[in-house]
Amino acid sequence: MDQREVSRLLDQPTISIRDAGRVMGLGINKSYAAAKEGAIPTLVFGGKRRVPTAKLKALLGMAG
Asked: Cys-Cys link to 58, which of 6, 8, 41, 63 (CB 3.0-4.6 A)?
């Protein structure tokens, strides 16, 4: 994943668990496992689980 793609994803208010995992260098299964364990923060909207990018940026030390 290139920097442009990472920036595009992190400019959105929320992203999928799959995309959050990709940003973190994780595969699909590890991404969902990390979300289930709470290592990747998630919110539920209409039955769909999403990752708030502000919290993901903070987790990655990118908040500013």
From this structure: 63
Distance CA 24, CA 2 (A): 12
3 state DSSP class of 49: strand
Phi, psi of 26 (to 5 degrees): -105, 155
Distance CA(62)–CA(59), nearest Å, equals 8
Measured CA distances, 20 to 13, 48, 49 (Å)? 12, 14, 12
| pTM reported for the whole predicted model | 0.91
Beta sheet of 48-52, edge-to-edge order: 14-15, 48-52, 43-45
Place of tokens 């364990």: 37
Residue range 33-49: average pLDDT? 96
